[in-house]
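Archive maintenance. Older records in this collection stored only the sequence; we are now back-filling the structure field for every entry so that each record is complete. The fields below show one back-filled record exactly as it appears after the update. Entries are processed alphabetically, and DUF3086 domain-containing protein is next in the queue.

ARCHIVE ENTRY
Title: DUF3086 domain-containing protein
Organism field: Prochlorococcus marinus str. MIT 9201
Length field: 336
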Amino acid sequence: MTNTEISNNNPEKELTIDKSISDDKTKQTSKKNTTQNKKITPKNNKSTKSFDEISDEIFRDLVSKKDSLVKEIKELETKKNELEQDIESNFKGQSDNIAKRVKGFQEYLTGALVNLSQNVEKLELVSQPIIVKPSPLDEKKQDNGTDNVIKVPALSETFKPDEEIIKSCFSSFTEQPDFYAEPWKLRRSLNSSDIEIMDDWFFNMGGRGSLESRGSRQKNALLSAGLISILGELYGDQFQTLILASQPERLGEWRRILQDSLGLTRDDFGPNSGIVLFERPEGVIERADRLEANEELPFIIIDAAETSVEIPILQFPLWVAFAGSDNEIYEDLELN
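Back-filled structure field:
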């Protein structure tokens, strides 16, 4: 017997069978849904828990920061109050001291003014004339002063007492050069024209004046070496030579010639040595003033290339300025 036959013969049974089948399907789908829901729900729980934990941590951090800020604000308020109290107390104390001092000074001034006014009232406005009679001793001194005439020695007589020493040096300069002489002694020889110029400078000019250039810096430096040698015989270590030349090349030439002519070393050229080199006249004047203040004698030498002489240099007792010709100055400028 087939299914059609059964369905045709028994329709109620067929309905019951279909219902059972549908119920079974619904149960299976409901079971699937429940299992899926069970799988999904724990995931949601995990996510909600992590978010809650994060929010709790953030909240705790905010609360802790708030507490720390509140503490800092309280500490700052206390410090502010302490500073205000200190300022008020110090300012009040200082103001009180200042007020006391001002008041005391005011009282002192008032007392001094009162005393001054009282003393002024006691003064005599009409002064008595004072008659001073000359002393007989003063009259005698005045009479003696009119008779005495101050005699100032001429410049030409400055070196008269040392004429013998100077003349002996002149005679030695004309002899054969002594290349092994002591330092500060002239180791070269001079001709008769040089001796005449030096004689005129000592005994007619009195050791201060201008000389005509010998034609070159080498000859002028050699003549100056003779003057330095003679002054060394007369004054020893009590004088210092100051050389003025406005360019270092010229000063270097002066140093080399004097070093060779007088048997000197580099140590003899310096601020505390026997010869000092200067590029500006202000330095020469300042150094000469210091030497005279220390009771020493400056000897100033001015190079022929210098076209003018500062007036303060002329006040010193020993100086020589070489006057160069126009051609000599021009050639010197061309070389430098």
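Update note: The longest strand covers residues 239-244. The chain is about 65% helix and 10% strand.
Entry marked complete.
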